[in-house]
Automatic annotation (TrEMBL):
Family that this chain belongs to: Belongs to the pyrroline-5-carboxylate reductase family.
Organism for this UniProt entry: [Eubacterium] hominis
Chief place of localization: cytoplasm
UniProt protein name: Pyrroline-5-carboxylate reductase
Function text: Catalyzes the reduction of 1-pyrroline-5-carboxylate (PCA) to L-proline.
Gene that this sequence comes from: proC
EC code: 1.5.1.2
Length: 267
């Protein structure tokens, strides 16, 4: 069994660790986690019986190291671990704006590395992640990494140049989806539904609609039309949402997200 190490265990790292442990991909002896404030992880180690240690120990003892720290910390953290990681370690880079080439340059050698873009639904085994492998990863390396990402959801291999596109539609999108869900619940509360019921109806409508699109393979416009009765209620909502710029708000928000990713890559 390979040992998986996480350096940084905040929002994204923790979602991945929880997803991996819930799926029993490794036992607690093969999961080592470090964090700037390790005391924040005591509950995690109690639930999943995994090791909480420091960056050095994660680097020395892990076959696969996930760098789940903020992008600006990559240089500093890699400098501190580059001489102590195992020779054939696989480094997983999940940071927005950090490329495979950046990681290789920071290590100063052609370390095996994977550029990945997961999302927080990893916590409930429903992540959708993109992966792009450096050319020195062999088939076994790929299978090991894919097993990690499949333990907490689905994943697809994409060309690294498309990672920012994946970030806007998947890595960052849970934030916009939660905003939509919150707004939908507000709309239902306004009509008198208790808030908890409103969240449950809104979230299940989101899950059901997404599942329907994936399972039927139908165009989302066709599925939308199936809900809009002539002179009915839904078409009134659709017309008002178009008037308020719902779709262009989403598209422009995603463009801003992509632009920020490009800006971060230049630093
Ligand atoms: N959040 C998301 O949905 C997604 C994030 N990402 C990427 O994941 C990475 C992490 O993001 P996110 O989880 O949101 O950030 P968080 O700030 O939530 O987590 C980062 C963690 O790193 C810890 N940390 C800080 N400095 C160090 C250090 N020197 N050594 C070890 N641990 C350290 C922090 O500890 P403490 O809090 O105790 O200071 C914190 O727990 C980013 O690069 C981001 O681009 C990618 C896809 C989605
Ligand atoms: O907001 C961010 O920068 C990170 C990257 C993708 C999701 N969260």
């Amino acid at each position: 069994m390979k040992t998986i190490g996480f350096i940084g265990c905040g929002n994204m790292g923790r979602a991945m660790v929880e997803g991996i442990m819930k799926a029993n991909l490794v036992d607690g002896d093969h999961m080592i986690v470090s964090n700037a404030h390790p005391e924040r992880l005591s509950e995690l180690s109690e639930i999943y019986d995994c090791y909480i240690s420091d960056n050095e120990s994660v680097a020395k003892n892990s076959d696969i190291v996930v760098l789940a720290i903020k992008p600006y910390l990559y240089k500093e953290v890699i400098t501190s671990i580059k001489d102590i990681v195992k020779d054939d370690v696989i480094i997983i880079n999940i940071a927005a704006g950090i490329s495979t080439q950046d990681v290789v340059e920071m290590f100063g050698r052609k370390v095996k590395t994977v550029k990945a873009m997961p999302n927080t639904p990893a916590m409930v085994q429903e992540a959708m992640s993109a992966l792009s492998f450096s050319d020195n990863c062999d088939q076994d390396d790929k299978e090991d990494v894919i097993a990690i990402f499949e333990s907490f959801g689905q994943c697809r291999e994409v060309e690294e140049r498309l990672m920012d596109a994946v970030m806007v539609v998947s890595g960052s999108s849970p934030a916009y989806i939660f905003m939509v869900l919150e707004a939908m619940a507000d709309g239902a509360v306004m009509q008198g539904l208790p808030r908890n019921d409103a969240y449950a109806f809104a979230a299940q409508a989101m899950i059901g609609s997404a599942k329907m699109m994936l399972e039927t393979g139908k165009h989302p416009g066709e599925l939308k039309d199936m809900v809009c009765s002539p002179a009915g209620t839904t078409i009134e909502a659709v017309a008002k949402m178009e008037e308020m710029g719902l779709r262009s708000a989403i598209i422009e928000g995603m463009r801003a997200c992509a632009n920020r990713g490009k800006e971060m890559s230049k630093k």
